Structure formats: structure tokens, C-alpha cells
Amino acid sequence: MTTEVRKLPAGFGRLWGAQTISSLGDGVTHAALPLLALTLTRDPMALAVVAAAGTIPWLLFGILGGALVDRWDRRRTMWVTDVARTVLIAVPAVAAAFDVLSIPLLAAVAFLLGLGGLFFDTAATAYLPELLRRDPALLERANSRLRGTQTAASGFAGPPLGSALLALGRSIPLVADAVSFAVSALLVRSLPAMPRPVPQARESLLRQARAGASYVFRDQLLLGLALRPAVGNVAFLAVETVLALFAHERLGVSDFGFGLLLTAEATGGLLGAGIASFLGRKLGTGTALTTTAAVEGVAILGLAAAPNAYLAGLALAVCGAGMGATMVLGPSLRQAIVPGHLMGRVASTSRMLAMCAAPFGAFLGGWLATAYDVRAALYAAAGLLLSMTIVTASMTSNRRVEAARRAAAEPEQAELVPAA
């Protein structure tokens, strides 16, 4: 790990910086957006619409987006998307400044930001293994750093900053996010160019998209890696939809206190990202993924039962630790075993499954909070997470992981068939 060949390339530092700055802006908006929505309505279903809107683009364009990324220059896709998001986030900032902000406008902006995220995240996921030459150890180190700083910026620093900026004016947090997108675009533009994916002659976009989806669904390991965040997002969006309401009405916290709750989750996420490689080595990647999934479920159960903000913060921190480790181990494994020409499509298919599930979670959380109680949504989320852990344990076992890594070491075989 200390030899020259094992060092992360200089270009990674710029990618790391770009995503860190953008994540800080995302964290500001992540705290400010639900609080802005709360200034407009207290209807849980209206809040669910705003929470779900950002995930709908994955339902409509997820697989096609991956096929396009596999055709396009991935670096250019990232910086152009960031420029577009800079302009987009300025729209609600202006609306807030002139006091014409509305729930439909917030939902529309969330939808378009989600569409931009689809292209940026898919391109970044496909670009990273090219930059690191698909080295499994470097991928795990790089993802650990990316996830750790993303968690620190978007969850630890961003939410309290967003709450504080909101106190200065409703448009201020959105302006800060716009600046973060602009800086990210400049950094991404300076990254080294990579060879464009080799086009597959006379093959339609739909046919290429189906090939990527088929690759995921025919591989038990890749399918298991995709199902966990899919079911997890149902649970986490159910929690996120009612969390601000839960914090205000059941725990009695202020707007700033709500930012601190999100910070507690991010603190755990930072720890989880930092120990992910250790867990993978000690338990095996498959067992580590099952363990972290179980931790998430138990933590949300604790959140539902929490009688005060302190125990709620502890539960969120534990949940964040499980999520942080999962988000390092899962993507690193996928990037190491999937052929380069399929990476965009496989990544977008996996992400699409996760993101398409999220609106169901948002509306489930809103419905349970309306029909029963906000705690009912949290208990339901915990049950989903624990059930998912049991169902997918064998699909992502250590045996399947090692078989996939051996197959990926044989390029010709890995290009022809799924790994496990």
C-alpha cells in the first residue's frame, strides 16, 4: 500500500475535492429544503411529494441514463451537469427572495436536481474505475475517502450550516448550494480525459440499456447488491419524510436541533466509512455487508422508541455508521467486478432500483404518519430493513464475493458472462 504503484493518482484529488465541495452544498440544501417546505405546509403528504420528487427521474430515465453515459465522455457529462444544476438551484433562491416560493416549485426543482444527479452520479461511478485502472484496493481506499468526506460535508457540516443560513434568509442556503455546484464544475473540468467507451455498432440505445439491466438481474451477487439499497431506500425515505415532523412534534427540538440530529447521523456515517475496509478484511465483504444491514435495522428500531432527542441522535449515529460502511463496501465491490463497457449501465440499473423504491417509502411514511402516528412510519422502516437483511444474506455471501473477484481477474471470461 506504500509503493508507487499503489498510490492514488493526482487526478483523484481533484475529483475528491469536487465531490466534497458539492456535498457540502447538498448538505446545506438537505437541511434547508424540508424546513423551507415546513414554512409552506404541515401536510405530511405534501412533504412526501417534495421528498419523493428527486427520486422520480431514476424511475423514468434510470436505465436509459446509464446507456447514455456509456456512450458519452464521462468527464464532460459530470461538469456539464454541474453547470446545469448551478443555474437550476438559483430558481428557488430567486423565488424565495421574492416570496413566491411554493410546494409545486420545490417539487419541480427537486425533480430536475434528481435528473442531474442521475447523470452526474452514474458518470462519476463509471469514471472512477477508469481513473484507478480497476484496482480493487485503490477502489476501496478511494470510495472510503469519497464516502467519508461526502458524509462529513453533506451530513456533519452541511445541515447545521443550512439551518444557520436559513435564519439569515430563505434564499441563502440555495445560493450556497449553487456556488458549490459551480466550483465542482470547474474542478471536474480539470480532470484528466479518459478514452471514450467503444461504441457498439448498430445497437440501439434501448438494446444497450436492456443489456445492462439483464447483466444485473442474471447475477445473484449484483442483484443482491442492488436489492439492499432498494429496500433500504423505502425504509430510509419513510424515515426522512417524517423526521422533521418527528423531531419537532415528538422530541421538541428546534430547527437548529434538527440540523444537529442530521449531524449525528453523519458522524456515524463518517466512522462507518472509515472502518469499512477493516470490517471487510475481518469478516469478509459479504458478511460485513450483512452485518451493517442488520445494524441499520436495529438502529431505526431504536429511533422509533427513543423518548428524547439524545437517544434519537445516538440511534441515528449508529444507523449512519452502518450506512457509511455499506456505501463503501458495496460500490467498491461492484466497480471491481463489472466490465468497463457495462459500468455505466450496471451502476444506473442498480441505482435505479434503489431510487425507484424511494418514492414508495416517502408516501408510505406520509400515509402512516397521517393515518396512525409518525412513530408508526419508523417502526415500519425498521421491519423492512431487518427483513431485507435476512432475504439478501445468501445473495451477497463471502463465497459469491470471492467467486466474483476471481472471475474479474480473468478479463476475457468477465467480459462474456456475469461473475457469479
Automatic annotation (TrEMBL):
Keyword Nucleotidyltransferase present in the record's keywords: the answer is: no
Instruction: Please give one Pfam family short name.
Output: MFS_3
Q: Which CDD domains match?
A: MFS_MefA_like
Q: Where in the cell is it found?
A: Cell membrane
Q: What is its main location?
A: membrane
MF GO annotations: transmembrane transporter activity
Q: Where are the transmembrane segments?
A: 45-67, 225-246, 258-279, 286-304, 310-331, 352-370, 376-396
| Alphabetized InterPro entries for the sequence | MFS_dom (IPR020846), MFS_trans_sf (IPR036259), TM_effector (IPR010290)
**Where in the numbering of this chain does the Major facilitator superfamily (MFS) profile domain appear?**
1-400
Q: How does it sit in the membrane?
A: Multi-pass membrane protein
* Alphabetical UniProt keywords: Cell membrane, Membrane, Transmembrane, Transmembrane helix, Transport
Q: Name one GO cellular component term.
A: plasma membrane
Q: Which PANTHER family does the UniProt record give?
A: INTEGRAL MEMBRANE EFFLUX PROTEIN-RELATED, MAJOR FACILITATOR SUPERFAMILY ASSOCIATED DOMAIN-CONTAINING PROTEIN
Q: What is this protein called?
A: MFS transporter
